[in-house]
Every structure is written in C-alpha cells, then in structure tokens.
Amino acid sequence: MEEEKVLYNATVCYLIKEGKILLALKTCKIGKGFLNGYGGGVEAGEKSIETAVRELKEETDRDENKGVVALPEDLEKIAIIDFHNTKSDGETFICQVHFYLVKRWEGEANDTDEMINPAWYDINNLPFDKMMVTDREWLPLALSGKKIIAKAKFGSFQKTSLGKVEIEEVSSFPEE
After folding, report:
1. CA dist 150 to 44, 66, 98, 104, Å?
2. CA dist list (Å): 140 to 124, 172, 175
C-alpha cells in the first residue's frame, strides 16, 4: 500500500515569464501524479520564504549548480492555503501552504527525483485536468494579482475535493 505523506507546513513556487507558468509533474509525496509548482516542507527554524528558495533549487537541480536560483526578494507571496487532508484511514491533518510567484531567477529547471517534465503553460489556459483538483478554484484569482487566504478540503491522496474552496481576498499576509 502506498504511504500517505503527512506534512504540516509547506511552500510552492510558480515561475512566471511572458504570460506563461512553469509546471512539472510531481513524482512522489503530496501531489504525486499532478502538475504543480516547485516546493516542499518547511524545516524547523525556517521561514516559508527561506523554504521556498531552498526547495526551488533542490527540486530543479539534477546536477550541482544547474537548477533554478532565486533570491528571497524575487519571490512574491500570492496565497496562504490551509489544506485539510483526509487520509484513507479517516485521519485528518492540516497542511498550511505558502504560495509564491517568481518572476526573476537564474538557471533552468531540470528533471529531478521529485519533479519531471517541466513545461511552460499559458497562464490563461492552465491544464487544470492535470493539476490538483482545487487549483482551478483559487489559482486563477491568485495569478490575477489578488492576495488570498483560503481553506480547501481533500480526500485521500489529494485526489478529490471535499467541498468548495473557501477564499478570502486580503491586502497583506500576517507576519511569520
């Protein structure tokens, strides 16, 4: 039986250029089998922006010094979402994810153990049928320049949505 990953704090970065967004196929853990941005779990003592920069490099770097490098000031926070995840055994956990846009960076995204087949997609024509099921509800709003705080509920392995995403537009995000 496949292991269900439990994670409580995470980040996702979306690289953006010329009206396009870079998505790659997640090969393991939360989001496995779906197109997504780059990110991962917040480690003890890290702020979410530090995690975002670290994970972006790790998930795009096949060989040392060949991945995507961005500086914290190059990241723009667009959303904080509390994902209420129900595991197949009925247990639930909440993973708070901080989402960022990255419009300036160096390097290129390469296939890694966690993310493969990076490709650019038109920001106005996203492949929602290949993305996590709740992305279609909140991502277009966040990509349009709105800052949002939201709550979404997933079934096991994040394959189903358990209700509508609750979205609140905000003018700023709370300090970490």
Report:
1. 24, 34, 11, 26
2. 8, 18, 24
How far apart are the C-alpha atoms of 58 and 109, rounded to whole Å?
10
> Structural domains in the chain?
9-170 (3.90.79.10)
Assign 22 to helix, strand or coil.
strand
**Each residue's pLDDT tens digit, 135-168:** 999 999 999 999 999 999 998 888 899 999 999 9
- Asked if 33 and 114 count as a contact pair (C-beta separation under 8 A), the reply is no
For the stretch 108-138, pLDDT in tens is 999 999 999 999 999 999 999 999 999 999 9
Question: Token digits for 37?
Answer: 């941005």
